[in-house]
Design a protein that fits this description.
The protein has about 100 residues and is an all-alpha fold. It has 4 helices and no strands.
Length: about 100
């Protein structure tokens, strides 16, 4: 890998960390307690989607490339996101009777 990939990854992680800290600084304490777990799960899921290498690296052999877990991780990440959305609508929506 080249240094640009490492720098981009570190910069993205630093920006997400600053955003995460700002969420706790500028949101009322009751909202942080109420929504903190959901926000934490969403940030973890989004960072997995952004930074995980779903395609196998080019230097792997064909046997290693066929067992690369990128597709399964991508599938379960998207299903987890769907579950978060469904649960969010189910428990926090006021319009659903």
């Amino acid at each position: 890998m080249n240094n640009k990939v490492h720098f981009r990854t570190v910069l993205g992680g630093a920006l997400l960390t600053l955003l995460w800290i700002c969420c706790f600084l500028f949101i009322k304490s009751t909202l942080v307690i109420e929504f903190g777990g959901g926000i934490n799960a969403n940030f973890k899921r989004l960072s997995l989607i952004i930074f995980y290498p779903f395609n196998p690296p080019a230097n792997l052999t064909s046997d290693q490339a066929t067992t690369w877990p990128g597709g399964a991780i991508g599938f379960f990440t998207l299903i987890g996101g769907l579950a978060v959305c469904v649960l969010w609508i189910r428990f926090f929506s006021d319009e659903i009777a």
